[in-house]
Each structure stands twice: as C-alpha cells, then as structure tokens.
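We modelled the chain as a single entity of 213 amino acids. Its sequence is:
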Amino acid sequence: MSAGQRSDRLLRMSRRRAKPPAVKPLSTEVAIAIGSNLGDRAGNIAQAVRELANLDRSLLIDVSPTMEFEAVRTGPSEPGGAYLNAAAVLRTSLTPVQLLRRLQRIQKELGREPGSWGKGAARTLDLDLLIYGNKRVRTPSLEVPHPRMHERLFVLKPLVRIAPKMMHPVKKLSVEELLVLAMYRAGELQYVPSDERATGGPGAGRAEGGQAS
C-alpha cells in the first residue's frame, strides 16, 4: 500500500469517526394523565405542563383543559378535596422506563410527598404514563398501557379532548370509543339509535375520578 493510499484510508477512517451520532427521531406518541388535589391544584398542573414542555428528547404536542372530578374515597380519613385533571400528548425518543423516571422526578420536584404514592392517596401532583405508541410494557415498576385507564372517566374525558383517535394498543379501541363504553358503564350515557347519533346523543353528567394510580 502506497503512502497516498494509506493517507486516503486514514482520512476516510477519521471522517467515519467524526460523524455525529444518529439522533433517534421523536417518533413515539405518548399520552400522560395529570392530576392534583392538594395545595394550588391549578398551579401544580400548570407547572407540571411547563416541565413536560422542557422534557429532554421530547416535544409537547397538546394539553387538554383541566376538568374537576370528585376524588375516589378509599377511607373516611382520606385527605384532599376534588381533583383537577388534565391530559398531555407528547412525542418522544425516551424509552418507557426513561420517561417514567422523568415523570417521577417532576412529581418529586413539585412536592409530592413520599407517603402519597399508594393507591388512593391524595397528592399534590400525579403524572401517569397512559399510552406509549403501540407498545405494551409490563415490568415491576411500569405497566403500559395503564391497566385501568379504560375504566376512568377522569382520564378519558380530558384525553378525548386532544387525542380522540389515539388507539389503545391492547384493546384496539380509540380513546373516543373507550370513553363511550366507560360512560355507558357509569350510567352517564344511554343507548342512542344509529339514526339519532348524528345529533350528539345525551350529554354527560358529573363523574367520579381523581388519581390515576
């Protein structure tokens, strides 16, 4: 190999080494439930949305209006009042576990107490990963899609405002369809003949909801 050939080879190798690492596109669409029933509820949610907007390797696409729901009571001494709930849709290149850790960090930074992680506990902030693209994840610390999202009006009503066609990857139903079924089970929606559905059908009443964990 001549000196010129060696030089060309070294140049090609250096170019390969200097090539910047590929950046994974923000291709995965995810849904996150947001809730608060302690302290400045609206302020807690607004700050959480700001944190989501600044999340690394992610892009905040939309946030629903807040909606108020009565808390699900698990005992007579349960603190906290009604919940404010909202939903957010992001695109991200974070893995489900990476995203979960960031959501937990946001909750901690915004004052969620160590004793408020149990099911039914009142909390300053609740962030739950509902849907992560078309993936199904089951680990000791994370289950996606959220195993109870399809039953919860306080999750589905905000989410349907911004992502009605988002699909549940296990049930193969859209958020819109899941909400109709949940409202029917809750007695908020009666059967509407097909020729009357175009008029909008009956309205929804006040729902019970609150925490999504």
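As a brief sanity check on the tokenised model: The chain has one domain: 23-205. The mean pLDDT is 81.
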